[in-house]
Amino acid sequence: MSVCPQCQAVFTCAMADNTGQACWCTALPPIAFKKLPDGVLKMDASCFCPHCLPHWKAEREAEYQRDNVQPEA
Predict the structure, then answer these.
(1) CA 5 – CA 14 distance, rounded (Å)
(2) How far is residue 66's CA from residue 49's CA, in Å, rounded to a whole number?
(3) What is the separation of C-alpha 12 from the centre of its chain, rounded to a whole number of angstroms?
(4) Whether the Cβ atoms of residue 45 and residue 15 lie closer than 8 Å to each other
(5) 49 neighbors 35 (Cβ within 8 angstroms)
(6) Which residues contact 46 (CB under 8 A, 6 or more apart)?
(7) Residue 18 burial by Cβ neighbours in a 10 Å radius (0-12, 13-18, 19+)
(8) What would the DSSP string read from start to end of 3-52?
(9) pLDDT of residue 11
(10) Per-residue pLDDT reduced to its tens digit, 38-73
(11) Spatial distance between the Cα atoms of 32 and 58, rounded to a whole number of angstroms
(12) Rounded to two decimals, what is the model's pTM?
């Protein structure tokens, strides 16, 4: 079992828990590395639960959009 670093919920991450099956998160759309803080994914990153991962991704997308808005000419 895995523990979400955001909300501490216990959940199954098929990859981290080595179940031999595809994880639920692989069904979600990917996020571009350039949209991650500093453009990198920390190698010690933990899995987020099914509730927190979509919210985390949406926050990264919003931050990227906010920080990369081009002023109108």
Answers:
(1) 16
(2) 26
(3) 15
(4) no
(5) no
(6) 2, 3, 4, 5
(7) exposed
(8) E-TTT--EE--TTTTT-SS--GGGGSPP--GGGSGGG---TTPPPPPTTH
(9) 92
(10) 666 665 567 889 999 899 888 888 888 888 876 666
(11) 12
(12) 0.70
Question: Would you state the structure tokens that stand for residue 47, as one six-digit string?
Answer: 């899995």
Residue 68 CA to residue 44 CA, distance in Å, equals 27
Residue carrying the six token digits 């990369």: 68
Q: What's the residue count for the chain? A: 73
In the block, tokens 């639960």 appear at 49
Measured CA to CA, the distance from residue 39 to residue 18 in angstroms comes to 27
Q: Vertex 41, ends 67 and 22: CA angle to 5°?
A: 120
Token pair for residue 63? Answer: 């931050």
